[in-house]
Write a structure and sequence with these properties.
The termini are far apart. Helices cover 82% and strands 0% of the residues. It is mainly alpha-helical.
Length: 212
């Protein structure tokens, strides 16, 4: 039980750092802050729902997708670790993670379109989040672990939803400097997680291809 609790705690912190609800709340507010409360709630729900579906698919069927393209989990762990590292590094530098956002404002016809992109994808479920989910699934020992990982991600999505719908109130209470500090802490967690992902990937490669 202690090992399971530790594993789920790591999963929660990893997903929380990736989604960064506190740091992404100003982004959400800047996109839909002019909308009424009903529209903001709808967009917030749709964005986290899209992210949840994407991560659930990769958590449950990621290995099937890998086999179709001839990929291996160690390779994905190493590549994912590199992606997550740069996301964390950007956050430590106080910058918006380049792999989690778009430099160009995407043309959207409505707030509902914004919920799908750029909010749902790639802000909440970008390559870094997918890599993190796949890494956790690889660490799990059974299908039950995959379901638990999805449950934990759902919890983080719910927290993100709550912060999005209360973004106007949060913006009035949190100072910009506090948001920067929180973002840097999330960046530190991500960089450590990324290094661990790379180490695990390399270790698995060594086990699969032992030197003679």
């Amino acid at each position: 039980m202690p090992n399971l609790v530790l594993f789920l705690s790591t999963v929660f912190l990893g997903f929380f750092a990736m989604l960064n609800p506190i740091g992404n709340t100003p982004v959400f507010l800047s996109l839909v802050g002019d909308a009424d409360d009903k529209t903001m709630k709808r967009v917030a729900f749709k964005s986290v729902w899209v992210a949840f579906l994407v991560i659930s698919v990769f958590s449950l069927f990621g290995h099937v997708i890998f086999r179709l393209f001839g990929l291996t989990l160690p390779a994905f762990q190493i590549a994912g670790g590199i992606i997550v590292f740069f996301i964390g590094y950007d956050l430590l530098q106080g910058e918006t993670a380049k792999t989690q956002s778009s430099d160009k404002k995407l043309p959207v016809d409505s707030f509902d379109d914004m919920a799908i992109s750029p909010l749902g994808i790639p802000l909440l479920s970008g390559p870094g989040t997918i890599s993190t989910a796949m890494n956790f699934v690889g660490e799990g020992k059974s299908f039950l672990y995959a379901l638990l990982i999805i449950f934990v991600f759902a919890l983080v999505c719910f927290i993100t939803y709550l912060m999005f719908i209360t973004s106007k109130k949060i913006a009035n209470k949190l100072s910009p400097s506090l948001i920067v500090v929180i973002t840097k802490i999330m960046g530190l967690i991500l960089t450590v997680l990324a290094v661990q992902m790379v180490i695990q990937g390399v270790f698995k490669v060594i086990l699969e291809f032992p030197g003679k």
